Amino acid sequence: MAQVLAASPGTVFTVTDLARRLGHSGGAVGNACETLVCRGEAERSGSKPRTYRATSATAAAAQHAAPPPQPASGGTPPVPRQASQQAPSAPPSGGRPVPIVRPNGQKYHPRALAQLPDVEALRRLREAQVAVLLYGPPGTGKTSLIEAAFPDLITVAGDGDTTVGDLIGEYTQDANGGYEFIYGPLVTAMEEGRALLLDDATLISPKVLAALYPAMDGRRQIQVKAHKGETVTAADGFYVIAGHNPGVHGAVLTEALASRFSVQIQVGSDYDLAASLKINRTAVRIARNLATLQQAGDVGWAPQLRELIAFQKIADVLGAETAFANLVGIAPLEDRDTVAEIVTKAIGRPVTALALGRQL
Q1: Spatial CB neighbours of 341, under 8 Å, sequence gap ≥ 6
Q2: For the chain, what is the radius of gyration of the CA atoms?
Q3: Which of 117, 171, 212, 239 is deepest in the core (most CB within 10 A)?
Q4: What percent of the chain has pLDDT over 70?
């Protein structure tokens, strides 16, 4: 891929152009392009359709790549290799994976999954069109992982009010007082061959989710009944991934939804990462202890990485004592006494929930 881009530094290629040149599927080529973009070894220059071109680092990447396959005589693209012979979408790294910058500018530190960096494992599953469901408590990094793995991601924030129109599209009044049909994120992801995240998918009504299922099975099509009954067919690269928070009120993983996701991955907080991020060691130890009690069923809540990052920000601004008091205060009411007891024991002085004091 890098060699093709580097050979024509001023040329913009679509995924289809590159797929024909290399003899691979559009999904595999799209994933490989996004991997190069993540490394700064290519840039995405357009989105409708997705287009790519070389950067100043592409030529260096091309020197380490195998020569691209040449078209057969007459210009016919070569026959794709069998899946078992295809090169991985990213070469294995000899050392620790480098952090990946998410769209919000924060860095994601890859974790291990199936003897691979988690982002690479998800990209391979996308290439194979194997849908993935990530589940675990809020704040463990499910969305962060998905954003790091798929730079072309479109996100739907699910809740009990999500409608079919929110997914597929609906008529909206325009500036002239008329109405026009605005396509929803599902149609956009299908037409542009992008990844679609259903965040908190299990909060969405099963009747609404049913509109998505034809796009995920062998048909890879949906019918937009509200817009002349048109049929939308998914482009190469289209992929659905979902997040599920089992402990959230109203989150129900139905059999119909679970059966659409062949791979289901539990995501917990990486407390070693929290320590390496220089978060207060006592706070990390408290979180570990609470997580152990949570697994044993003795408490229902434990601070996750999100809460620990917030703890450190509060400690940096208002001091560690305030941050510990806030840690007690954010615990669910039914667990607050237990959390206060553990925090008190850890720091050696009584700690209560953060509250206003007397008038100054």
Answers
A1: none
A2: 24
A3: 239
A4: 88
Cα end-to-end distance, the chain, whole Å: 66
Q: For residue 103, is the peptide bond before it cis, meaning its omega torsion is within 30 degrees of 0?
A: no
Task: Give the per-residue pLDDT at 45.
Answer: 82
Interior angle at CA 260, CA 257 and CA 265, nearest 5? 90
Contacts of 330 (CB under 8 A, 6+ apart): 307
d(CA 135, CA 257): 13
- Judge residue 359's burial from the number of C-beta atoms within 10 Å of its C-beta, 0-12 exposed, 13-18 middle, 19 or more buried: exposed
Q: Give the whole-angstrom CA distance, residue 287 versus residue 167.
A: 37
Distance CA 211, CA 224 (A): 9
| Sole residue written with tokens 């994933």 | 31
Residues 6+ apart with CB under 8 A from 76: none
Q: Please tell me which residue, 92 or 319, carries the higher pLDDT value.
A: 319
Give the three-class secondary structure for 352: coil
Q: Maximum CA pair distance of the chain?
A: 86
Kind and range of the H or E run holding 44: strand 43-47
Classify residue 10 as exposed, middle or buried by CB count within 10 Å of its CB (0-12, 13-18, 19+).
exposed
Q: What is the pLDDT confidence band of residue 89, given thresholds at 50, 70 and 90?
A: very low
3-state secondary structure at position 117: strand
Pull the structure tokens for residue 108.
């994601």
- What is the pairing mode between strands 195-199 and 179-183? unpaired
Q: What is the pTM of this model?
A: 0.70
Sign of CA dihedral 40, 45, 46, 51: negative
Task: Output the DSSP codes for 218-252.
Answer: TT-EEEETTTTTEEEEPPTT-EEEEEE-TTSTT--
- Residue 269 pLDDT > 70: yes
